[in-house]
């Protein structure tokens, strides 16, 4: 008996019809290959998906709601006006408040715009005075809305043809957001004014003076460059940059000013000389020009060659030299001989390194990781050892100090491995020769040093290790193993103390007994450390007094365990 064909109704969907057709295909001796082919085609999963999508679209077309009216805004105004003509109940007052709120007005305005289908861009009429040699399809009229912001594009004059060419599109600017202006486009007119015979600075002034909408006549480039893609490259600036003082920048107004320590997102490196970047945390979407790493290094190398920039490879005077008289010297300092020779220390810059940018990424300590190392450096008068000991004493279960080594004799109340690791001079010298100390020096004919193993021993107990070192030791500690967080502590020196005479200044306070010369040395020490090592500092702590400085330091340590921070990319790269 022959099988009856299934009945198809008006409500049967396309994908259901397809399934029914597939089920009816039977092998036939005369058309076997055709049947197999049709069954394979109808059985394709992608075809079934397409049929379902088509059915949903048709269903949406039949059920799609349409606006009841096109004038909701004016109706709301009429209702508000009617409500205000007489006394109002509580509900009427609430309704009036809602109708007068700017947010609801904006929603109703958008509703009316969509209901009227009035959301297509309105283009200006094509001008009648096209050059004869150009056909209409080769000219593009672009209208942009830029308000008070820059256009976000730079121009140049083609040396061969003399044409005004779009040289660069700034990421996030008005030109970039429009998607209608591209690098290589030829600019002919701005707001109906021909720019063919104008100088680039005159054109830039014309563009900057245009407020609100601006109309451009453009001849599109034959080959438009790809749109800029958002980059994931982040760098920490290691120098200050002011575009208005940079004569080399192609457009000072398009430059991005930044300070040392700012985090920059580099959105494109297409130009080997001028990168485009945005400062992390800025609300503006527009990128700005910054000198590329290679270009900035070449400039610094040239300045060093010409003698206008100090050689980064030359030895630097220790910041702690000459501070005995003020009574502010730490218990020991680095030996200059050891720092430059057998200790393995080196200048914080390599042979070819200049302070430009350091690639960084966000890092947050995970529960199974060892705590980050906290490094304190301080200018004269900061008394960082006292600050460190106070913080550790208040919470000895979370924080600890790296126990130093010494060759001095042990006192009766001291225990080996608690106050110090007491070792012989031969043992100490051998460890120093093998670069086991991050810093070491001599004090009253005895050797003192802080070893790398002492830091590891604290971290192995899952405690946060706090060390205070001379700034010269930072290079040795800035490794992926320790991931140090560097805090620069400096005392607050009131300006009145800088101006006040030692003979007339009264005593009292942390700095009450210091002379004017001591105060100046403290101030100069802070400036010198900042200039030489500030690019490695994560936080500056201004010490008002011991109690407030201790509380601030504790807050930093707590955030260090739970928050994320920018660190060099090399520290977390696997």
UniProtKB/TrEMBL annotation:
PROSITE patterns linked to this entry: GUANYLATE_KINASE_1 (PS00856), GUANYLATE_KINASE_2 (PS50052), L27 (PS51022), PDZ (PS50106), SH3 (PS50002)
Domain Guanylate kinase-like, chain residue ranges per copy: 371-558
CDD domains membership: GMPK (cd00071), PDZ_MPP3-MPP4-MPP7-like (cd06799)
Record's keyword terms, sorted: Cell junction, Membrane, Repeat, SH3 domain
Cellular localization per UniProt: Cell junction, Adherens junction; Membrane
Subcellular location, principal: other
Domain of life: Eukaryota
Family: Belongs to the MAGUK family.
Database matches in PANTHER family: MEMBRANE-ASSOCIATED GUANYLATE KINASE MAGUK
Protein name as annotated: MAGUK p55 scaffold protein 3a
Record organism: Cyprinodon variegatus
